[in-house]
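Open question from group meeting: does this chain pack into something compact, or does most of it stay loose? Before anyone orders reagents, we agreed to write out a predicted structure and look at it together. Recording both the input and the output here so the notebook holds the full record.
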Amino acid sequence: MAKKLFDPASSKPFALSRSKVDLHMHCPRCFYLDRRLGIARPAGFPFNLNSAVDTLLKREFDTCRADGVPHPYMQDAGIHAVPHAHPQLDRWRANFTGVRSVHEATGLELFGAIDDLWRDLGSGELIVADYKATSKAGEVGIDADWQISYKRQMEFYQWLLRQRGEKVAKRGWFVYCNGRRDLPAFGQRLEFTIRMLPYDGNDGWVEDTLRAIRETLSAPEPPAPGKECEYCEYVARAVTSEP
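Structure tokens returned:
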């Protein structure tokens, strides 16, 4: 499938995923090469086990959604909410459709696929929920430096839903699954401990970021290599190294 690259002469909204917005925040040059010239970073390995956890969690929460009751994880965390039965939820969860909104000021059509949406039983606000899975010896959290991308992901979903006129709670939740390593044997199954981690999002960064993205896309040449981008550093070393 051919990539849909940005054309400065086009008046049509240019579709941009949440992950591409995050790419620009990490390295504007890599973003430009990807969205203007079609030169993407090498693809990473698929996280198939994480995908399996995601699928099974959605199945569990969907059962509760159909019954109009909270999931036990929500009850244990004291969350006064239920999985929300929004008519567009299936579409909003799909990777290549997701929640979409056109940002008129920049001509960008932003989209991102959410994991889940809950409804606060008191305020009626929608709560963005995101599933994460890993396996580590210690307790999982969301405060490591590299996890800023998790927080931006949550905030971007909140922003998208607000752009569509939805009343969205500031507080979102991460359902974080940690594969246990302390068991005596594998026994043909993985077991997980679950932490429900609240996060109060602030989407104030989104508007300025979108304007910066539009400026990058409209430039005739790519930005300078990122000082902390390992991909830019690799290319620089490869070009300057002797045979």
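Observations to bring back to the group:
The CA atoms of residues 183 and 191 lie 9 Å apart.
The first strand starts at residue 14 and ends at 17.
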